[in-house]
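Ops channel
N.P.: pipeline sanity check, posting one input/output pair.
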């Protein structure tokens, strides 16, 4: 019985479960993700009307990709846990021709408008990093199980880069027309940062055999603040096995979905016009693998 309890305390670390006091855990893993990214632009072929430019369909960014993730956890005072995790989605692609000119209003680090030549080659980069910091507390625990609750903050770092035949538009008072004159610029960059968005969650672990632990967690948030709307659903269930002292291997099934909408508008001739609508959906449903080290 003592041996079984000792192995349970060592192995139950895949989520914020019960572990010995003052323990650190590092986890590195990978999974496949599916992405959908759109941006509101003006199209010359539709006399300047707004429409959604699709990064995957129009700009040829990869929709499904193999991605890394990193997690760090510090457990102390028997029931308390602090965790930090990071997920990354970096993509780039070359588009030979869009086939039509587009204007991106209120874009870039300086919130300027740009005209992209649809007959020229366009290189696009879209980098998304998600950082989460949180705290978990083990509410119920026994010799071979733990149940707890968590609170945390998610922040998204978004970098968008366009390279090609691009014009910097001069000031335009007509919101329904493309800019007529532009100064050529080869590259534009926009770095967006979402406000820290809160999440709440629950987690549990159960040692069903010495050194083998079933664990699960669920996290959720939905918020609308100023010009940002965001939501997250994160549900994971899997098994962790001890492969040697302090080393564990995990196999889990994960449903993970993040949706962020950044909106911007400006007043022209006493009327409000929506000048930027930037929606990013980042989801994953499928298996994930990870290796962890505790010390």
């Amino acid at each position: 019985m003592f041996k079984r309890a000792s192995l349970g305390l060592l192995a139950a670390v895949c989520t914020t479960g019960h572990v010995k006091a003052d323990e650190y855990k590092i986890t590195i893993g990978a999974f496949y993700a599916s992405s959908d990214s759109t941006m509101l632009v003006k199209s010359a072929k539709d006399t300047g009307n707004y429409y959604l430019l699709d990064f995957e369909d129009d700009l040829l960014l990869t929709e499904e990709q193999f991605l890394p993730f990193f997690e760090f956890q510090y457990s102390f005072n028997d029931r308390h846990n602090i965790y930090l995790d990071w997920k990354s989605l970096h993509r780039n692609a070359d588009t030979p021709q869009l086939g039509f000119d587009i204007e991106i209003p209120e874009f870039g680090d300086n919130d300027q408008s740009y005209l992209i030549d649809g007959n020229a080659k366009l290189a696009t980069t879209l980098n998304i990093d998600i950082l989460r910091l949180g705290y978990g507390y083990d509410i119920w625990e026994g010799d071979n199980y733990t149940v707890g609750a968590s609170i945390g903050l998610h922040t998204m770092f978004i970098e968008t880069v366009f390279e090609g035949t691009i014009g910097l538009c001069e000031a335009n008072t007509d919101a329904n027309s493309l800019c007529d004159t532009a100064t050529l610029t080869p590259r534009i960059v926009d770095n967006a940062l979402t406000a820290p968005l809160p999440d709440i969650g629950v987690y549990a672990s159960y040692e069903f055999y010495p050194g083998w632990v079933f664990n699960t967690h669920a996290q959720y948030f939905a918020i609308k603040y100023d010009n940002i709307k965001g939501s997250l659903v994160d549900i994971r269930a899997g098994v962790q096995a001890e492969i040697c002292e302090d080393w564990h291997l995990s196999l889990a099934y994960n449903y993970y979905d993040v949706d962020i909408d950044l909106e911007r508008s400006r007043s022209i001739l006493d009327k409000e016009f929506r000048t930027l609508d930037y929606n990013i959906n980042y989801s994953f449903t499928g298996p994930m693998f990870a290796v962890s080290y505790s010390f």
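N.P.: looks fine end to end. The CA atoms of residues 216 and 237 lie 4 Å apart.
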